[in-house]
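Is adenosine-5'-diphosphate placement plausible here? Inputs below.
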Amino acid sequence: MASTLVLLGPPGSGKGTQAARLGEDLGFRQLATGDLLREARAQGTQLGVRAADYMDRGELVPDDVILETVCDAIARADDEPIVLDGFPRSEAQADALAGALERQGRDVTAAILIDVPDEVVVERISGRGQGRSDDNPDTVRERLRVYHDETEPLVAYYDDRGLLRRVDGAQAPDAVYEQVRRSAEER
Ligand code: ADP
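Reply from A.M.:
I modeled the complex. Tokens:
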């Protein structure tokens, strides 16, 4: 069965960078919900229009907006290995993911937490200047609050299922990737 990895970690923890490396190095198909939503906005699709205000406030977009998109993407992945970046972000989404994967005859093989303290997040995002409409200080604070309230409980959720791997995300990207790769290959 092909691997399905979940990357957990606060905004700015480097999930996108690490997912891209898993793609290049080990052939993982990347499924990044933030990127999907930003593309949808740029194209002006119904999904993008519905997501825009939530994203700019730093809130989660409602599950009915995101779930269908994620389930479709999982169904299209066939038996390729997948790395999920930015999903699931709540226990409800984690339960929905488990169901969607089961329908494809797969399940989560590991959840890798890229652990980074809040101060580092704030510093990194204020220096990243990508011009993302949600990278202003107020929205970053809100995204961190939402992470701690809604997403961090998934650390215990996956730990309870024996799937959690912790990585120190405050290191340089190469050192982080070394640990991520090891976690991805562990069975
Ligand atoms: P970051 O992890 O840096 O906050 P993302 O690119 O993953 O950024 O997400 C940007 C925004 O997209 C989030 O603040 C949220 O509004 C929306 N989003 C992304 N993934 C999800 C998801 N799984 N559920 C709900 N909203 C999401």
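Short version: The pocket of adenosine-5'-diphosphate is lined by residues 11-12, 33-34, 37, 54-55, 58-61, 66, 86-87, 89, 93, 134, 143 (CB under 6 Å).
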